[in-house]
Amino acid sequence: MNLKKTIKSALPAAILGVLALGLGPAAIAAATATASMTVSATVQATCIVSTTPLAFGTYTGLVLPATSTITVQCTNTTPYTLGLSAGGATGATVTNRSMTGPGSVKLNYGLYTDSGHATNFATLASVNGTGLPVVTTVYGQVAASQYVAPNDYTDTITATVSY
Q1: DSSP, res 47
Q2: Among 90, 112, 116, 115, residue whose Cα is nearest residue 103
Q3: Residues 6+ apart with CB under 8 A from 66
Q4: CA-to-CA distance for 59 and 43, rounded, in angstroms?
Q5: If both were cysteines, with which of 18, 92, 99, 149 could 153 make a disulfide (CB 3.0 to 4.6 Å apart)?
Q6: What is the pTM of this model?
Q7: Separation between Cα atoms, residue 11 and residue 58, nearest integer Å
Q8: β-strand 134-142 against 106-112: which pairing, if any?
């Protein structure tokens, strides 16, 4: 009888063990349902522009060159042009720029696309954005023999990206 009692008490544990190991009747499969979800976005043509200062330093009446950079980053394949304004001096043009000092005295300078100062920087030809930053160097030069009053002379140029 003791053996009968032991088997009776061990049997439920053995059945549970077999079921836990997956050796019992097949488990009931869960039902599933699926649906597709469309994901989309519209990429808008976008450009950003940044500049570094063009600091000529101390002018002594001799030709004084300096450089600056303009960085443009446009979405891939976006066509754009980069242009520089005439500046804020009265009567300034993109070919005759001036920094203004005390009493509206002007110190003339030029901005160029090349280090030889041969090509005036107005508007560059259209190019296509790559999605990566494109750095353009601006070559500045203060002309010689301008003997204006000693002081600080400044101007503000606006870099415009049209796209």
Answers
A1: E
A2: 90
A3: 54, 55, 56, 57, 140, 141
A4: 48
A5: 99
A6: 0.77
A7: 101
A8: antiparallel
161: which DSSP letter? Answer: E
Return the CATH number of the domain spanning residue range 47-162: 2.60.40.1090
8 A C-beta contact, residue 72 and residue 81? no
Query: Can you say whether residue 83 is alpha, beta or left, with left for phi > 0 and alpha for psi between -120 and 50 degrees?
Result: beta
Contacts of 110 (CB under 8 A, 6+ apart): 95, 97, 117, 120, 140, 141, 143
Handedness of CA 67, 73, 74, 76 (dihedral sign): positive
Percent helix, percent strand, percent coil in the chain, to nearest 5: 15, 30, 55
